[in-house]
Amino acid sequence: MNTFPEQNPPQTQDTPFPQPAAAQAYPQAYSSTQTGQSAEQYAVLTQDLLQTFGQKVAVNHLNLAVRPGEFFGFLGPNGAGKSTTIKMMVGLLRPTSGSVWVGGVDVWKDPLSARALMGVLPEHLNLYERLTGREFILFAGHMYGVPDADVTRRTEDLLRVLDLANDADKMIVDYSVGMRKKVALAAAILHRPQVLFLDEPFEGIDPVSSRVIRDILHELTQRGTTIFFSSHIMEVVERLCTRVGIINQGVLVAEGTLQELRERASGDDKDASLEDVFLNVIGVRNENHNLSWLD
Ligand SMILES: Nc1ncnc2c1ncn2[C@@H]1O[C@H](COP(=O)(O)OP(=O)(O)OP(=O)(O)O)[C@@H](O)[C@H]1O
User: Which stretches are tagged as biased composition: Low complexity (predicted)?
Assistant: First the structure.
């Protein structure tokens, strides 16, 4: 009996890249989730995840397996389905069908246990605008049941390293885009989550804070946290990620280490950048992009 698909469905678009392969990379994940045996071996596991909005298939039978401690970069062009996938993974958007496990917990069957294991920086930040930055981070720590003394100490540490200490007593409504993102990030990591989901964490962040955040994320993975993040910034993904998945039109079109993706997507060009690989995988061709009316 094998009801689980071996691969993601065929791509809707003609690309030079072979079929992706969470199911090939981690076949045991997919052979035994049917019997409920192996989800706990994975930090994040999706099985046949589908999301439709009317006629639009935003995420198309996604099968993805992320191992504990991996730094997984999730790439795709605008509208590819990254945020929709992350929302289904973290319990913000119920899948049309399919399953998601985080830390072995079925997110849609046991959402409270799953949420306790994760930290989330969503695409659209929904912050308590009338709290100060410090109050918001303290509040998040208490919500996750972190002991009082730890909440206080970690909050002050995070405010300091994220360069928010001078604005800690200002209300969030008066924060800049980057400051809001940093305070949301602090709230997402204070309880030392097992799995951290970040949707575009570097958007609107200055280079100094960007470096600090990269260092914090690296440190978290060194200490066992799994990170699943989406980004359009190829250099950051290239520098940080141990594995990368590329989604296009809701379909996972490539997955692997950077080296594997380079070899598969760019043939002999072993020095191809992630940007080259990305453009190759999603099938971008060199076309004339001139605007004739600018002449
Ligand atoms: N609530 C919704 N209702 C209808 N369509 C939606 C909804 N949310 C997302 N979509 C559609 O689903 C597709 C995937 O959107 P999604 O936000 O997941 O893309 P993305 O990869 O995160 O894009 P970006 O990089 O631009 O943030 C898009 O076509 C989008 O218009």
Answer: 9-30
Residue tagged 């046991």 (tokens): 110
Instruction: Say how many Å lie between the CA of residue 78 and the centre of ligand 1.
Output: 8
For residue 83, the CA-to-ligand 1 centroid distance in Å is 7
ipTM for the assembly: 0.98
Q: Over its length of 295 residues, how does the chain's per-residue pLDDT go in tens digits?
A: 333 333 444 444 433 333 344 555 555 555 555 444 477 889 999 999 999 999 999 999 999 999 999 999 999 999 999 999 999 999 999 999 999 999 999 999 999 999 999 999 998 888 999 999 999 999 999 999 999 999 999 999 999 999 999 999 999 999 998 899 999 999 999 999 999 999 998 888 888 888 888 988 998 999 999 999 999 888 889 999 999 999 999 999 999 998 888 887 766 667 788 888 888 888 876 566 678 788 7
Nearest alpha carbon to residue 57 among 81, 75, 76, 78: 81
* Atom in ligand 1 nearest the alpha carbon of residue 81: 18
Any atom of ligand 1 within 6 Å of the Cβ of 80: yes
- Four-residue CA torsion sign, 238, 68, 246, 212: negative
Tell me if 60 CB under 6 Å of ligand 1: no
Q: Spelled out in words, what is the top-level CATH class assigned to the domain 22-283?
A: alpha beta
Q: Is the CB of 79 under 6 A from ligand 1?
A: yes
Contact yes or no for 28/67 (Cβ under 8 A): no
Q: Is the CB of 84 under 6 A from ligand 1?
A: yes
Rounded distance from Cα 226 to ligand 1 centre (Å): 24
Contacts of 260 (CB under 8 A, 6+ apart): none
- The 3-state DSSP class for residue 260 equals helix
